[in-house]
Request: fold
Amino acid sequence: MIDYPALWQAVLDLPSHRTAHSVHGPDHWKRVERNALIIATDSGADVEIVRLFALFHDARRVNEWEDPEHGARGAALAGLYRGKLFELSDESFEILHYACTWHTGGRHHENPTIATCWDADRLDLDRCGITPDPDYMSTNLAKKIAEHGSIDPWLNLVPTNLTP
Reply:
């Protein structure tokens, strides 16, 4: 079992350019986690991996603008904490690593966990003034949410027994 509060704190304690409310910071990570947990109820994604993706995918950005290697650095950070603050099988870690590394450049993915990760991130694009586009979503539920224009009707799907 992963101690998510300890893991989040370890990442938050790292030196960074971000503030608590930066566009790619912890508030965004929490929304991505929420979105992923909602989508996973329909996609069958691995909940452990999508929660880890939410934390790591933007954790090593060096700025809020152009940073094409940030996903790979986030994946590398996950590798540093694997075996210390969380455990994943090699196969699961490969999925997490791929999802983090390619989340900006990848369009669609057939793997339900990778698709859930990417869609969860894209559903939060409105924070940047970009309306999420259903054509960029890989999962059925994310397409429905993007078409609706708000995730609010699906918020009841977020599990209530999860630690932050």
Q: What stands out?
A: The chain has a mean pLDDT of 93. The chain has seven helices and no strands.
